[in-house]
Amino acid sequence: MTRSQSRTTTAIRSLAILATALVLAGCAATTTSPSASLPDAEAGSSGDWVVSRTMADGMGSTKADGTFPRTVTHYAGTTEIPTKPQHIAVVSTGQLDALLSLDIVPAAATRAKKADLVPGYLADEFPQYADPLAEMADIGERTEPDLEAIAQAKPDLILINSTRGTEIYDALSAIAPTVVTLGNGVNWKSDFLLIADSLGREGDAQKQLDDLQSSAAVFAATLPSPAPTVSFLQTTGDRTRIMGFPSFTGGLAQDLGLGRPESQLFDDTSQEISAEQLDLADADRIFYAGNGDGLKLIEGAALWPTLTAVQEKHATKVDLDPFFLNAGPVAARLVVAEITSALD
Question: pTM value?
Fold first, then answer.
């Protein structure tokens, strides 16, 4: 058993005692989970990718918006949500973004590795929620959520995607009703609709997506043929990656009618490259970001000044959080605004 597995096992064992107490207190969830394994959110398929713009067939509730109790079908089975959630715990990427876009501040949230609990772009976009965001409970990193901290936050709904939910769904369901979205940035729209449906707010989420798509279509109609190509490059210092077609930014580029360079027409979310492979990031326009010393690794690389986009001053440094670390409607609007402004 690895150290990570040991930590998870210990946490789940201790949580079992805590969950029993919660059950006795009437706080446990009513859920069912399938015997089949959860889907692989990172799996890509060969061929042309089309951004998912609707909730997947069979997902969500049959109840009208605002109606509770409601039974929600999701990627780990079905969950009954007895009343309108008031204290929500968000575990996975983009879920804090999604809730804030619906004017809901969760009771607890995870954070990206080496990142703030509330990403800077969300703090900037929602200054009216500064106080409740400051009171939001920290329940660990997205890849290693703290089960005991989640239970202590006493949520009445837990949101997580299938990437991590595969391992801890049963433990989370013992704490509160839990809804599992698919995950992976290219699925953010269908996941947003599933989250909103769980809150009885699917119509509000759909309106946001429709507005975003309408704006993208207007921009796409102005593009020449062939459309300019865009490249997305990010680094955390120890890893430098170009984003593939089925990624958050890749999906938004598709909505905008933009092309992608041949080097980024692969089926994975991203592909790691070395400094000697930086030419794979070239395109008509490059959007790049990094944290720590990462930007120095890009801008100081020998190949960087040789790239066509760099020579033509078409390389734009962007905010890492909305472009690469958070996939949600607020981030999407900011990314679209940045791309269209650079290309206008």
Answer: 0.87
